[in-house]
Design a protein that fits this description.
Layout (H helix, E strand, L loop, with lengths): L1 H11 L17 H13 L10 E3 L19 E4 L7 H7 L17 H15 L2 H12 L8 H13 L2 E4 L2 E4 L1 H7 L1 E3 L2 E3 L4 H9 L6 E10 L3 E8 L2 E9 L4 H15 L1 E9 L2 E12 L2 E11 L4 H6 L6
Antiparallel strand pairs: 1-2, 3-4, 5-6, 7-8, 8-9, 10-11, 11-12
Length: about 300
């Protein structure tokens, strides 16, 4: 019976299948990475502007503390019109498609597959996607053979299910990084500000509580502590106010060229950070395992660029 169910599950995910299995080793300089991410940021037209979002960091905390240093939410205001932007709209529709508990089977319905395709279509219609495609094409990357090839490979590395526990198809790169998971009494992943805001805004329904900041970089990025359904996140970092496509394609860029222990050095609005990206290999395929920004030291450039409104 188990084997029959496994075959059914595998057949259900045939739309994810691509011929590309191995990722090529293509030389890209640190400067090129920084430059293309700066270009992403420049063309992040769907991002929240300064007057569309308000943040209240409150008390400072650390990885070891169990104290609640923030009696109020992190996000005190987010303009509801942000959700009307196509990439935010399609991104939010994915939020009810996942069970956060690792070890619980994830199944993708036809409706959910349509929602994944709608999200990919919306982000692929952005200038950031076009800039990534141009960059990959300039490096003769096989993902940039054409638009459809890129989309199918993005779908595989981010959305194809894999197992984090006991062989059960319970996870994916997208679920881990953007939605968050619950495992071993801790929150795992969840490195997206808008997902954080949505959970926080639901109040008691989400059992979600912001505990304080570890590192803050104005309205650009932060590392924070929080709890969700009684599970703790000792320290989780994310960009702030960026669009779903900025995060998605920045993490994708670093996955393709800087995955592993060395990190992916970038700058966001003048503030340095290093993206950590790990792959996850399952059934001879490679997927996104995790991706998140490690916030760098405060610099004068970071202070300068964050002194006024985001341009």
């Amino acid at each position: 019976m188990f084997n029959i169910l496994l075959i059914i599950i595998l057949l259900e995910f045939l739309p994810f299948t691509t011929k590309q299995q191995a990722l090529p080793n293509i030389y890209v300089t640190d400067y090129e990475i920084i430059d293309i991410v700066n270009t992403f940021y420049q063309y992040d037209y769907n991002a929240a502007r300064k007057n569309e979002i308000s943040i209240n960091y409150q008390g400072h905390t650390n990885l070891q503390s169990m104290d609640d240093c923030a009696p109020s939410p992190l996000f005190t205001y987010v303009d509801p019109n942000i959700e009307k932007r196509p990439t935010f709209l399609t991104f939010r529709r994915l939020m009810n498609n996942y069970n956060p508990k690792v070890g619980v089977q994830e199944t993708i319905t036809k409706k959910e597959m349509i929602e994944i395709d709608a999200f990919l279509t919306s982000i692929m219609n952005t200038t950031i996607a076009k800039q990534l495609f141009i960059f990959l094409n300039s490096k003769n990357h096989p993902y940039a053979k054409d638009r459809n090839t890129l989309v199918e490979n993005l779908k595989q590395i981010w959305f194809h299910p894999y197992s984090r526990s006991r062989g059960i198809l319970d996870s994916s790169g997208f679920e881990h990084v953007f939605m968050g998971e619950l495992k071993n009494n801790e929150v795992s992943g969840l490195h997206n500000w808008y997902r954080f805001y949505v959970l926080e805004s639901r109040g008691r329904d989400s059992n979600f509580d912001y505990k304080g900041y570890i590192i803050k970089r104005f309205g650009t990025m932060g590392s924070v502590k929080f709890s969700w359904r009684g599970y703790y996140k000792k320290g989780g970092s994310f960009f702030i106010a960026t669009s779903p496509e900025f995060d998605f394609f920045t993490f994708t860029l670093c996955f393709l060229f800087r995955r592993g222990s060395n990190g992916c050095n970038i700058e966001v609005n003048g503030c340095p950070a290093t993206i950590t990206v790990h792959d996850f290999q399952y059934n001879n395929r490679i997927f996104v395992g995790s991706a998140y920004p490690n916030i760098g030291s405060m610099t004068e450039e970071c202070k300068f660029y964050n002194a006024g409104d985001r341009k």
